[in-house]
Amino acid sequence: MDDINYLSLGGFTINYEDRAGLNSSLRILKDAEKYENVSLWGRILGVQKDYFVAQCWNDDIFGRKYFYSTDTITWLQLPEVTDDELKDISEIYSRFIGDPSYEYQVQSSVPNNEKEPINEEKRLSAVIKMINYDVEIVPRGAYYQDRLKRIHFNYKFKGLSEKEMIDLSSYFHFRSGFKLSLDTIEDRIDIDQSIDIFDNIEKDKPNGIWSLQVENGGSTVTLRSLLWPGYFFFHTPRSDMRQCKFGSMYNGFGIKNINLGVML
């Protein structure tokens, strides 16, 4: 919650009561579950109640576990979802209700073969996974890969330059499994295998899928996803007056924009 002033640029606001509840309960969650890192992933807006989502991890940033709360006090761990469940859930486009036990009927491609309904708790888990894969981003250089192929946060990262800040190729999809290829190397003039460890977002399709804006007199850059409306990223480089900061949050309905190609 330390970055609330930056996140407010993306429309994320929270009342004093909920903010106080989150600050207290996230610390309790961190101690109770014995995680080194706990942060607020975002908020998914429901018809009856909203879901606040926390992410927790130790050494492996890609081994994050997710917890949700509808009252900012009590946190429950989200279940894992199978690939088949993920596929079924990707076809649900209605609003979240705000009731974890609410069940969605899923259609089967096989006649006379009804599938088990999927509850909203699993849908929430799947949507977080899809959002992370599709649009979670970090600036180039914020993470590096060691000789053992392990990924670490770069504590020496000072931020992007003014020129780099407004270049989409300076922002990477924050997801595992990236491998350098001949095409990748040809796309990047100044390749550095220690930090060029993710796909950059410059070639995301369709064109115009990201909205980049310069804020705060040029000191901060923000990016918004049009694919998952509600995803917001900010970055402000280090200067004599401030520390380098970057971060992101999702604050929306948890519904993918399937009409984006038509809109653009």
Automatic annotation (TrEMBL):
GO cellular component entries: radial spoke
Keyword annotations: Cell projection, Cilium, Cilium biogenesis/degradation, Cytoplasm, Cytoskeleton, Flagellum
Location, primary (coarse class): other
Stored Pfam families: Radial_spoke
Keyword rRNA-binding: no
Protein known as: Radial spoke head protein 9 homolog
Protein location: Cell projection, Kinocilium; Cytoplasm, Cytoskeleton, Flagellum axoneme
